[in-house]
Amino acid sequence: TQLLEQSPQFLSIQEGENLTVYCNSSSVFSSLQWYRQEPGEGPVLLVTVVTGGEVKKLKRLTFQFGDARKDSSLHITAAQPGDTGLYLCAGPRSGGGNKLTFGTGTQLKVEL
Amino acid sequence: GAVVSQHPSWVICKSGTSVKIECRSLDFQATTMFWYRQFPKQSLMLMATSNEGSKATYEQGVEKDKFLINHASLTLSTLTVTSAHPEDSSFYICSAHRPVGWTDTQYFGPGTRLTVL
C-alpha cells in the first residue's frame, strides 16, 4: 500500500513567517502533485513534479521532489493570510487506472 | 484551464431519501471521473472510479448499492446516495481525469456538502 504521510498535520503561523510542509513515503512515485484546498471548495492543483531532485517555484512557493522520488516538500516564504488552507500532496497509485493516492494533509492557518 | 462543475453545491435531505449529485467537465471530455468523500479537516478518500460506458469500480469498503454511479456521457457523471442516513453527511468531491503530457492530472469540482437530517 502506498502511503503519503504529511507533516506537520496542523500549522498556525503569523503573517510574514516561512514554513515547510513535508510529504513522505516509503514508496517511489513517478510524480507528485501538490494541491491547496480552501474550506467548502475542491482542491486546486498547484504543481506537478516529475524528476527526482526537481525544484519548481510558484511565486513564494517552492516545491522540491526528493532525489529518490519518495518524498517532496513545499516551502512558503513570507506567508500571507491568503495562503491559509489545506495542503495536499498526491501521487499516482500503482496499478494504473489513473487513480491518485492523497497525502494525509496539512492544515495551514496564517494569521495577521 | 480545465473546469469541472458540481451540482448542487449543498443539499439537505431527510433520512431515507435519495440524493443525486452531478459532476460535469465543462471544457473537455473525460472518460474517467472519480468520486471522493472528505470529512472535516481530513484528506480526500477515494470512493469509486466512474468510467464512461461501463460500470463504476468501487474502493474496498464502499457499498456500491448505496452509492450509485452513472457515467452517461463523456462530460457527465452522477453519484446517487440512496436511502441516505446521517452518517452519510459529508463533503463529496468529484474529479475528471485529463492527460497532461504523461502525468495523471485530475481536475476537481467545487464539492457538494450533503447534510442528512
Which descriptors apply to this entry?
heterodimer, A: 112 residues, mainly beta, 5-stranded antiparallel sheet, 0% helix, globular, B: 117 residues, 57% strand
Topology:
The complex is a heterodimer of chains A (112) and B (117).
Chain A: E1 5-7, E2 10-14, E3 19-24, E4 32-37, E5 44-49, E6 55-58, E7 61-65, E8 71-76, E9 85-92, E10 100-102, E11 106-111
Parallel strand pairs in A: 2-11
Antiparallel strand pairs in A: 1-3, 3-8, 4-5, 4-9, 6-7, 7-8, 9-10, 9-11
Chain B: E1 4-7, E2 10-13, E3 19-25, E4 32-38, E5 44-51, E6 57-58, E7 67-73, E8 76-81, E9 90-100, E10 103-108, E11 112-116
Parallel strand pairs in B: 2-11
Antiparallel strand pairs in B: 1-3, 3-8, 4-5, 4-9, 5-6, 7-8, 9-10, 9-11
Structure description:
Chain A is mainly beta. In chain A, the strands form 2 sheets. In chain A, strands 2, 4, 5, 9, 10 and 11 form a 6-stranded mixed β-sheet that branches. Chain A has a 5-stranded antiparallel β-sheet with strand order 1-3-8-7-6, with no helix packed on it. Helix content of chain A is 0%, strand content 52%. Helix content of chain B is 0%, strand content 57%. Chain B has no helices and 11 strands. In chain B, the strands form 2 sheets. In chain B, strands 2, 4, 5, 6, 9, 10 and 11 form a 7-stranded mixed β-sheet that branches. In chain B, strands 1-3-8-7 form a 4-stranded antiparallel β-sheet, with no helix packed on it. The N and C termini of chain B lie far apart (37 Å). The model of chain B has no long low-confidence stretch (mean pLDDT 92). Chains A and B meet through strand 5 and strand 9 of A and strand 5, strand 9 and strand 10 of B.
